[in-house]
């Protein structure tokens, strides 16, 4: 509209009120500037008087400023209301896929038609064999579609939409608002454990995105001589006598230039054999698995019993402190204690309350946090020999990343630092092999 006035297609504006024309400094300034230039000669409002005089321009400027103040104040109030709602655990925005906004209760409920399919999408992706596009195709086959804002018609989820779903903490009970994480009161769709598994798959794929031609052990190992990453390349060789073509995968240093790296290449079969030896070195007999898990279950029951006992005792102390706070407040309201004494005693009681709550959290963490990692450790160690003998290359890579770090290649020998939980198993295996070799040597003489 202003562009047409600049082109002299019109010289006046009819509006209901000045706040319909401008609610920011830029628009209001442009209108007043066009009035000063004489391009706008008439402004007609049924609810506001305007005349092209210094007084009229001053009043128009005030009306624009009042409109801007109204918008700014409204924005602050709306944000404050949304933040207050978020602190109560209510998601202040549109429900994500799998949920629906209940207009009657003003809450967010599970969508009975789509929730189960969204849940299965998380489960499928956690297996590590499905891509974003395959998840989108699965949801499309189940009738779970995205509504585009512009066209407002159902469309299959784009890759970014699938990523947004799989990384949204709303589905396990929390939600992100205004760059903060809040605890929601809505019903979770999945467990936190499944959500973390999905994030683990995302992290693994982002790290492996630089693999060349899908080689398994690229972007993992460094050259011990120059520090460059180890890459891989595929070679084909034709054997004329047997009329066959053989393919070989070689791993080598990526350093190029005048001064080349002196480290030789390593055949993939030899590298895999070394990886298998390391995995077997920290594997335990499968017969140990049952006994260790049974012992772990006993420790788990004992830990939870200790946590429940201590938590009950500390909660009783919390109740006693809360009673003291209530009595202190009553005494202050009745004028028995002064405000200074009230605030001093209140701070002391609140400090005691926070100390007890911190003790509860710390005790629960110390008693329980090690149970799940130890269980995973046992399961991985008991399946190590099977992975080494019949597992896929990707499975061997994941086990290798779990047991070690800082991988390097030196004269076709793979070396690394053992992760802390696996160092003892490695030492145990080394001592056991030494004893066996020593006994064989003594028997020979």
Features:
single chain; 14% strand; three-stranded mixed beta sheet; extended; alpha+beta; Hect, E3 ligase catalytic domain fold; 55% helix; three-stranded antiparallel beta sheet; 14 strands; 445 residues
Determine Rg (CA atoms, Å): 35 Å
Q: Strand order across the biggest sheet? A: 9-13-14
Tell me the name of the CATH class of the domain at 99-210: Alpha Beta
Task: Give the oligomer, counting copies of the same chain as homo and different chains as hetero.
Answer: single chain
Q: CATH H level of the domain at 99-210: which superfamily?
A: Putative Large Serine Recombinase, Chain B, Domain 2
Folded structure, characterized:
This protein is of the alpha+beta class and 445 residues long. Helix content is 55%, strand content 14%. It has helices at residues 2-6, 25-37, 54-87, 115-126, 132-141, 159-166, 192-207, 268-281, 286-333, 339-368, 371-382, 384-390, 393-403, 420-444; strands spanning 12-14, 42-44, 99-102, 107-110, 146-147, 154-155, 174-177, 180-183, 222-223, 230-239, 244-253, 266-267, 404-410, 413-418. The chain has a 3-stranded mixed sheet with strand order 9-13-14. The chain is extended. The N and C termini lie far apart (105 Å).
């Amino acid at each position: 509209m202003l562009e047409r006035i600049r082109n002299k297609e019109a010289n006046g504006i009819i509006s209901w009120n000045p706040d319909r024309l401008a609610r920011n400094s830029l628009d209001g300034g442009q209108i007043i500037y066009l009035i000063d230039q004489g391009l706008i000669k008439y402004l007609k409002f049924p609810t506001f008087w305007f005349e092209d005089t210094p007084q009229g321009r001053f009043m128009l400027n005030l009306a624009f400023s009042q409109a801007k103040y109204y918008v700014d104040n409204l924005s602050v109030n709306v944000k404050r209301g949304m933040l207050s709602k978020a602190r109560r655990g209510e998601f202040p925005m549109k429900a994500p896929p799998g949920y629906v906004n209940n207009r009657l209760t003003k809450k967010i409920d599970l969508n009975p038609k789509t929730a189960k399919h969204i849940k299965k999408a998380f489960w499928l992706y956690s297996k590590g064999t499905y891509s974003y596009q395959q998840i989108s195709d699965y949801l499309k086959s189940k009738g779970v579609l995205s509504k585009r804002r512009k066209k407002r018609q159902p469309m299959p989820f784009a890759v970014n939409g699938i990523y947004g779903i799989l990384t949204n903490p709303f589905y396990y009970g929390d939600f992100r608002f205004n760059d903060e994480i809040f605890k929601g009161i809505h019903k979770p769709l999945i467990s936190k454990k499944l959500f973390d598994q999905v994030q683990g798959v995302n992290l693994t794929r982002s790290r492996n995105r630089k693999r060349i031609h899908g080689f398994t052990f690229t972007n993992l190992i460094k050259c011990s001589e120059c520090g460059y990453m180890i890459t891989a390349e595929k070679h084909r060789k034709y054997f004329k006598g047997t009329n066959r073509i053989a393919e070989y995968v070689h791993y080598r240093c990526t350093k190029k230039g005048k001064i080349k790296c002196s480290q030789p290449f390593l055949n993939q079969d030899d590298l895999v054999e070394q990886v298998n030896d390391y995995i077997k070195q920290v594997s335990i007999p499968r017969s140990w698995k049952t006994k260790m898990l049974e012992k772990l279950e006993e420790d788990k029951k004992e830990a939870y019993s200790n946590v429940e006992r201590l938590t009950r005792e500390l909660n009783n102390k919390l109740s006693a402190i809360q009673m003291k706070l209530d009595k202190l407040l009553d005494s202050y309201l009745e004028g028995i204690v002064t405000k200074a004494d009230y605030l001093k005693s209140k701070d002391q009681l609140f400090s005691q309350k926070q100390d007890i709550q911190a003790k509860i959290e710390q005790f629960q963490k110390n008693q329980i946090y090690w149970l799940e990692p130890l269980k995973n450790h046992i399961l991985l160690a008991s399946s190590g020999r099977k992975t080494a003998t019949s597992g896929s290359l990707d499975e061997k890579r994941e086990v290798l990343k779990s047991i070690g770090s800082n991988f390097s290649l030196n004269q076709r020998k793979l070396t690394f630092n053992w992760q802390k939980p696996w160092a003892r198993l490695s030492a145990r295996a080394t001592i056991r092999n030494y004893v066996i070799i020593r006994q064989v040597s003594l028997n020979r003489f």
